[in-house]
Amino acid sequence: MANGMEKIALFIDGANLYSATKSLGFDIDYKRLLKDFQGRGYVLRAFYYTTLVEDTEYSSIRPLLDWLDYNGYSVVTKPAREFTDSQGRRRVRGNMDIELAVNAMELADHVDHIVIFSGDGDFRSLVEAVQRKGVRVTVVSSIHTQPPMIADELRRQADVFLDLVDLQARVGRDPADRSGRMQETPRFLERRTPAPSSDDDTADA
User: Taking every annotated instance into account, which residue ranges of this chain make up the domain NYN (predicted)?
Assistant: First the structure.
């Protein structure tokens, strides 16, 4: 590592990022994303968080997680809890906020810059706590969705806000690029992706 190179850690809220990019009409190329941030400094860790439903759909997300695991990401998962709501609909409960926050606080003393890929307003307190340790925080989400994916309080707290629209040319996946097939997000996330709010009654897979 070159002297003076900024040490960076990436924290990706998988469901929140997928929801934002789906609304914007593009897919993330995770290889390009990691390379882009490696060009900005020394990436100490790149975490990807998701919950898993332990049924037949589990196998559909495994190729994505395996690809990430073998290509420079630390994948953090936990089982989601299923239940039936008052209308008889199958719902999934679970999020990875605590896991992300714990990892961020653990690494805060070892990095100069933390990048959080999420618009969830619940992370405002985490951002503030990390900033008190002298770490710069960038939040990556979007104001170009309807409604905006980024919570206003989180955007205000961050040192830097990066809109996914501005990153698309550098980290978006070319639809014609078949090499990115293993990075595709499974279709089941489309029905279970949460809104920008931190409602714990929806999936955070």
Answer: 7-164
